[in-house]
Design brief:
single chain, eight-stranded mixed sheet, 8 strands, 21% helix
Amino acid sequence: MTTDDSRTDSTTDSPAPSPSAPAGLAATVAAHWTATEARDWAALAATLAEDMVYELPQTRERIRGKEAFLRFYREYPGDWHVRVDRLVADGDQVATWVHARVGTEEMHAVTFFTGDAQGRITAISDFWPEPYEPPAGREHLTERY
């Protein structure tokens, strides 16, 4: 669903590029996730700028450079898979909500991408929230799903 001329919100695996994203950053990010799931390392490399930076705030890890990032993904342990549930693009920024599975464990993540004028990914920040029980005392205000 397109919400305006500068933003794309999609719940499919093949989102339409945002008209204002430089050189099709939304399409680049969609290709990034498709290549990741396929373990197509050459196609994944084509989505990345040489000096890209990957950050994982929960673990306070940072990986600098395309080759180090690709090695990190290639060497990540387990039988892991990703599916894009939503992609939102605005200018040189794209956010995705992904469903990930590692073996039998399932989780969701929010990932923020920044791109350059050529539509390549220059920065990725991955947020992998852990589920937790809400504190007591607000049941009258919320519903659980």
